[in-house]
Structures are given as C-alpha cells and as structure tokens.
Amino acid sequence: MTVPSLTSPPPAQLATANFRDVARPAGVVPLIAPGRLFRSASPHEMPAAGVDHIRRLGIRTVIDLRSEVETAARPSVFPAPQVELVHVPLELMGAAESHRTELTLDALYSRMLVERADGLMRAVRAVARAPRGGVLVHCTAGKDRTGLTVALILSVLGAPMDTIVDDYAMTESLLAGPWTDSMVAALTAAGMRIDERLLQILAGSPAEVLATAFAAHVLAPWGDAAAYLLAHGLAAEELTALRDRFLLSPSPFPAAASRPVTPSEKGAP
C-alpha cells in the first residue's frame, strides 16, 4: 500500500479539503509512522469512491469532533464497512459568542485550551483507544479543534514545537480556494459581514497563534502536553498507547508520571 506523503494533494475522489497524513518527513525525530494518523476538514460530502479510498489507505476509525448541531446539519458519511465512526462533540464556541466583534483566533485558542481542556482530552483519548488501523480526525475545517488535538498528540510524541506549528500552519493553504469561498458565500448569504478577523477565524492558521496559545496554556502552566492531558483525565497507559501506536520505533520516553502535575507544583502564577 502506498501512503501519500505529507505534501501530496489528496486524491480528487475524496472531495474533502485539508486532508493529509500527519506523518513527518524523514530526518525529523521522533519519526511518526506514515499511514496511522490523518486529519481533514469534514468529509460529509465524500462520495463512495472517496470512502473506498479511505479504506485503501488503511483508515479504520474516523473521529468526528463536530458538535451535535453540526452533525445534524451535515451528517457524516461514516460509519461505513470496515470504518468505525467515533463522535466526540467538541464545541468550538457558544452561539452567542460567534458574533462577538472582539473575538479573535488568539482568544479562541486560549479559551479552548482552558475551557475545553476536558473535551480536547477526550479527543486525544479517542485516538489512543481507537482499534488497530489508521485514524482520521476531523471537525468542520480540520483547523481549530482538529488542530489543537493533533498539536497535543504531536507534542506527546515528542515533536519539537516548530514541527507542530508547521503542521498546523499548512492548513490555511489547504483550505484556500473552493472550501473557503463556499464558506464565505454561505455566511454572507446568512447576513454576516466577513472582515479580516472573521476570515482568519474561518480559514486562517497563522503559526504564531498556535505557538503563543500552546506556550501560554499548555507549556507554561503544565510543563508539557502529557502533564496537561494527565491533569484533565487522560490515563498514563493512554499516553503510552499513543507513543506505541504512532512512533516508528519503540518509545524513547520515560514512563508517564503516575499522577498529573498541578500548575502550582510547576510554579505557574
């Protein structure tokens, strides 16, 4: 089976934006095994040929992070034969917040890492507990909820911050074009004025936004992503499962702590 490289465009039959294998190119340590962790925008319009391609890639679990409202409006094409669907609803923001003129992507990520930490942990847990085979994680754009989930997983695997940020920043170019145009058209038709701030929330993925939020709300208070996830309920054996599942070689990391480290123990303000 040939697995597409990180930079390969998705096959046209997927009809799904922002689809990619999260595997890193050779030379990056630790090396994440290809064909095991994928991310994308919502595949709700994926045709039968796309679903068949998903199976041929070895993907056996699709984790949908969209809310109940989103999935009701645009139901998933999964589950499908040989592909299990796991729904982990993760609210991006409250309905009342979506029109706040002061909301920025920076503020959104800060709030998610603080106020949606339990949900992000559940998303990571779903990946760790998935049956054998490749795992596809998606939300609507595959950018914010998916981006933070994948960033936490990559950090647990030992990827350096620049690798994590590079993976996230790639999203904007993969959403550009038809996906972004259709979303802008739909929101405009609904009476929303799309300014630069809203366009960034909709389809932007500036490297510095993720780097700043991750440093402020994961690294500074907790020390690392593993401690952040442990503090919000992930089990030590689930961290081990992530490392064993996605790293090419056996985990070089020490055993996870038996309990989460609190911010006060880390000396956080």
In short:
The chain has 269 residues and is an alpha/beta fold. It has 12 helices and 5 strands. It has one domain (14-91, 100-245): Protein-Tyrosine Phosphatase, Chain A (Alpha-Beta Complex).
How would you explain this protein's 3D organization?
It is a single chain. α2 links the parallel β3 (59-64) and β4 (84-87). Mean pLDDT is 86; it is low at 1-9, 26-30 and 251-259. The radius of gyration is 18 Å and the shape is globular. Helix content is 46%, strand content 8%. Strands 1-2-5-3-4 form a five-stranded mixed β-sheet, sandwiched between helices. α3 packs parallel to α9 and α4 crosses α11. The chain has one domain (14-91, 100-245): Alpha-Beta Complex (Protein-Tyrosine Phosphatase, Chain A). With 269 residues, the protein is α/β, with parallel strands linked by helices. The chain contains twelve helices and five strands. The longest helix is centred in the C-terminal third of the chain and has 16 residues, at 207-222.
Keywords for this entry:
269 residues; Protein-Tyrosine Phosphatase, Chain A; five-stranded mixed β-sheet; 5 strands; disordered N terminus
Helix and strand run? EEHEHEHHEHHHHHHHH
CATH architecture: Alpha-Beta Complex
Please report the number of helical segments.
12
Task: Categorize the overall geometry.
Answer: globular
Gyration radius (Cα, Å) is 18 Å
Strand order of the largest sheet: 1-2-5-3-4
Low-confidence segments:
1-9, 26-30, 251-259
Derived from helix and strand composition plus strand pairing, the structural class reads: alpha/beta
The oligomerization state is single chain
- Please summarize the sheet with the most strands: 5 strands, mixed
Helix content: 40-55%
**What is the CATH C level class, in words?**
Alpha Beta
Q: CA-to-CA gap between the ends?
A: 50 Å
Average pLDDT over all residues: 86
According to CATH, the homologous superfamily is: Protein tyrosine phosphatase superfamily
CATH fold group? Protein-Tyrosine Phosphatase, Chain A
Number of domains: 1
Strand content: 5-15%
**Quantity of strands, as a count:** 5
